[in-house]
Every structure is written in structure tokens, then in C-alpha cells.
């Protein structure tokens, strides 16, 4: 199915998909044409008449934007895609939700990808920045948190309670660099270290030029508050290596060590 294009208009598509067979949402040049959600979606919009042949394959030419991204095998119920699309005359007449437009695109899509609606948007609309919140659901086998066949309801609740207490430890701002690719982390770390060293040298030079006198030994003694600030700044700036983080952890008496009993049998 294909419509006759009359003009170009920025629109917003509400898209849902089952990502099991895909390598994520975002289109990637090195991957095959049908390996990502955006690749098959772009192809379907082109076949429906929504993208000119001269712009096909070049998402930047149609101002393609997404509200969020998903990785390989991840599903989505409501991902918003925005682009400047070729649309027919009186596209939303008697069809304010753009269901008819969506049906044209869906006719060219596989069954595991669907466009639910197409709505008009302003030129300045930024689908990523206008998103108020994102909600994620994670599914995992019950056995991974100690719930097995034959567990009583009391045991199930105990495991759930213990697992929820572990998740609480991940809330807030923490140095999650151990969860990133080592090569990428070290590149960022090296750049930050150079900037920190450069700033330190500049401050020392300024102090020397201004003729600042050394303070007494009592004044130079770092307080507990100063030590906490130094640790906090090291964490926030990403300067801490793994060994540094280990030292901080050892010196922190109030740190709660979280362990799951079924992973660490006594």
C-alpha cells in the first residue's frame, strides 16, 4: 500500500515491537538492512510513500529522532519516532489519530513491528527532550533470586524481600564504571586525568605568582569533611580507578555490604 505525497510535515509515530529477532532499535551501517527496528521501519515508510527516494537510507535528511533506544532482544510498547515525512493531502481529516496512515506503513512491516498511530508535530518538537519519563520492566527467571520449585509462600516472600533490598543499593548516584566496557572507560579516564592535572598545575602556578604563604601545619591538616569532599569529587570526576574505589570502600565504616545468601552459602 502506498499513498500519494502532497507535502512534507514533521510527525510523531508511536511504535511497538518484539525485539527478539533484532539487534536493537537504532539503525547501524555495518549491520544488514533488516537487523534493526529502525531499518525495517524506514523501509516500510519509504514503501508507503513517506520518504522520497533521494532521502532513503539517510535518516539525517528527514530529521529522524527517537525518544529512547533499546538493545538487542529488548521489546517496546511505546517508542516515539519523529521525522519529516511526506504525507497525503488532508492526512488527518476524519482520522485525528492517524490510524489510516499507520495502516499503510503496517502493510509493509513484519508482524513483530507495529505503528499504532501517527500524529502531526511542530517543527521545533524534540521527541527525546519532550519525553517526561521512561518506564522499564525487567523479566528474569525466578531461580536467579533463589525461588525454586517447592518453595513455600513464606520462602518466596523472603527471597523477594531480600532481592528488593539488594536493588535499593543501586538507587541514587554511584560510580558504575565497573559495568562499562574497560577500553571505553579508560579512554574517558585518561582524558579526565589530563584535565585534572592541567587544572592542578595552573592553580599551583597562580599561587606561586601571588606569593601565597604556607599555612601552619595545623591548618594544612585535612579534616574529615575535607576528606569526604575529596573522595566525593574523585568519584564524581571519574578519576578513581578500581584500586582507588577498593580503598575507599575499605575505609568507609558505614558502607553496607550486600550479599545474597543463596549466592554466598555460609
Any idea what the CATH architecture of the domain at 7-120 is?
2-Layer Sandwich
The fold-level CATH name of the domain at 7-120 is: Alpha-Beta Plaits
| Classification by helices and strands | alpha+beta
Number of strands: 4
The largest pleated sheet is described as:
4 strands, antiparallel
Approximate shape:
extended
Cα-based radius of gyration, to the nearest Å:
27 Å
Portion in beta strands: 5-15%
**Mean pLDDT metric:** 79
- List the secondary-structure elements in sequence, H or E: EHEEHEHHHHH
Question: What do you see in this structure?
Answer:
With 266 residues, the chain is α+β, with helices and mostly antiparallel strands. Among the domains are: 7-120, Pseudouridine synthase I, catalytic domain, N-terminal subdomain (Alpha-Beta Plaits, 2-Layer Sandwich); 175-189 and 224-255, no CATH class. It has seven helices and four strands. It has a four-stranded antiparallel β-sheet with strand order 2-3-1-4, with helices on one face. The radius of gyration is 27 Å and the shape is extended. The N and C termini lie far apart (65 Å). Mean pLDDT is 79; it is low at 212-245 and 258-266.
Short overview:
The chain is an alpha+beta fold. The protein has seven helices and four strands; from the N terminus they run βαββαβααααα. Among the domains are: 7-120, 2-Layer Sandwich (Alpha-Beta Plaits); 175-189 and 224-255, no CATH class.
